Amino acid sequence: MVCAAPVDGCAAPVPRKGAAPSAQSYPLCREPSCRFIFEQVGDVPEAEFLRQLKLGAERWRLAHAKKRRGEEEFGRLVREQRVAEARGNAAAFAAIGPRADLGPEPTLQLVVPSGHGSSRPLSKRRRRAYAAHLDAIIAAATAPAPPAQPSPVPEALASPAPQAANSSLPGRLCGACGGGCCPIGKDQAFLSETTIRRVMAADPSLDPARLREIYLGHLAQRTLPGSCINHTRLGCSLPRELRSDICNAAACDVLVSLEDGLKADPPVRKVVVLRRRQNFWYRLLPPLNNDIVGAAVLTETKATRLRAPKPAD
After folding, report:
1. Beta strands 270-276 and 107-112, pairing class
2. C-alpha distances in angstroms, 134 versus 189, 193, 205, 219?
3. How far apart are CA 12 and CA 312, in angstroms?
4. Rounded to two decimals, what is the model's pTM?
């Protein structure tokens, strides 16, 4: 009657909340909104209950229709943005071509998000939050308990470990991006008791106090606001061996494309990169400006920054 979905034939009839014992019972849908409407109309005559149920159902359907329209509109805007960006990317790569000295080498064209931004002094609040998180995970890691399961890699970044260990291009690509995937690290940096156990296993001489001191000692004086506490303009302030397994293993779709290119025959030797304004997590929010703001040509020996091509009129 509310969501128009069929009711399970095995559902037992349920009396209305607060209704008289003689009131009719109804098989109740599992939909929370339906249950809410059903439970809000109590001890009233049957005709009034049905009237209130009808009104509630109309309000529910109007709200969900509006939500669906909003989702459809958002999807339309995202699709339009993708088409426009693909067109802009093609024009930008064409404009860069004569300046990139591409030559006969296998070349890959990639578009990265952006983790670049203005740094600010690290606040005492963030430092306290980070220290409290370290205290919690170090205590959990050193407690006599079974090892915790590793934290899951965010689905959007899930990837096998990088396969191009002998190439400098993956590192240069991440440098061109500047940490566009880092913002959700916040004040915990994805560090967990699993990370602490691994670090302590690698150096059994470390005690909890010394380990805490090491992590706090790697905090930079200036960090990027709104991102991981270890995110600086020069990259991650933590050495790789102290980072979480998520940070060490995760790879965005752009990095995976590069890894595939490095495994090809012949392998990629040069990468032309466009960098757009938003980070990995905000890049598909249509109201936000996501213009091309940077470009570079990457090789195994250097990264050459180029002026971002001007958008076509």
Report:
1. parallel
2. 10, 9, 18, 13
3. 64
4. 0.70
